[in-house]
Design goal:
The protein has a single domain, classed as Rossmann fold, CATH 3.40.50. Helix content is 45%, strand content 15%. The protein contains nine helices and seven strands; from the N terminus they run E-H-E-H-E-H-E-H-E-H-H-E-H-H-H-E. This is SDR family oxidoreductase.
């Protein structure tokens, strides 16, 4: 039986690139999306045309009941889960802290932190040998912003990703003896649509000179790191924070 992978926020960018690589590697897939049904269904059609066993499930991972429903759909369709890629994330428009209201902070932390925790919780329940599972791998998509802080732009997003780094380290130790490996990738400036959400679609062109390699990264380059971390090639790797950031 094919191994089963859940990718949250799979309709575009890093999530979609990861789905394509995972399908090519033989994984069965659950593609989670929140709003981009058209993009998710197009990706689903593409993957199925190449023989992949895949489903797409709409769910807002910031909502606990919807997370439970998402994992229930995986149980019903596949009966197992071997890998979770906690990729879904949001950021808000660029601004300094003194202009941020509580509602913004709640939105950013609800998806980037609480959603990742909830999905990891449900994944552990299914993967852990403590609960009758056969093990598995979790990869959290953090950000190099957790290290750099993103001053004057997104310090709330950076702080949320810092929480994901800490969760990665703690959870890796918590479930290591239960057959689960937990790691994170920390992408740098990557050519995806998320920059438009912050109000600057061409942000990478402005800041690329700050990247030692002198360019932005591609979603595929991050996806390749994710696929390595979930694979048996990384069988002795857990609690790692892998920077895919051009040297930043």
């Amino acid at each position: 039986m094919s191994k089963v992978m859940l990718i949250t926020g799979a309709s575009r960018g890093i999530g979609a690139a990861t789905a394509r690589l995972a399908a090519a590697a033989g994984y069965a897939l659950c593609l989670n999306f929140r709003q981009r049904r058209d993009a998710a269904e197009q990706l689903l059609k593409e993957l199925r045309s190449h023989g992949a066993h895949a489903i797409a499930i709409e769910a807002d991972i910031a909502d606990e009941s919807q997370v439970v429903r998402l994992f229930g759909a995986i149980d019903a369709e596949f009966g197992r889960l071997d890998a979770l890629v906690n990729n879904a994330g949001i950021l808000e428009r660029q601004m300094r802290l003194h202009d941020m209201d509580k509602a913004r902070l709640e939105r950013v932390f609800a998806v980037n932190v609480f959603g990742s925790f909830l999905c990891a919780r449900e994944a552990v329940k299914r993967m852990s040998t403590r609960y009758g599972g056969t093990g598995g791998a979790i990869v959290n998509v953090s950000s190099i912003a957790a290290k750099l802080g993103s001053p004057n732009e997104y310090i709330d997003y950076a702080a949320a990703k810092g929480a994901i780094d800490s969760m990665t380290l703690g959870l890796a130790k918590e479930v290591a003896a239960e057959g689960i490996r937990v790691n994170a990738v920390r992408p740098g400036v990557i050519y995806t649509e998320i920059h438009a959400s912050g109000g600057e679609p061409d942000r990478i062109e402005r800041i690329r000179s700050s990247v030692p390699m002198g360019r932005g990264g591609e979603a595929l380059e991050v996806a390749q790191a994710i696929l390595w971390l979930v694979s048996d090639k990384a069988s002795y790797t857990s609690g790692a924070l892998l920077d895919v950031s051009g040297g930043r």
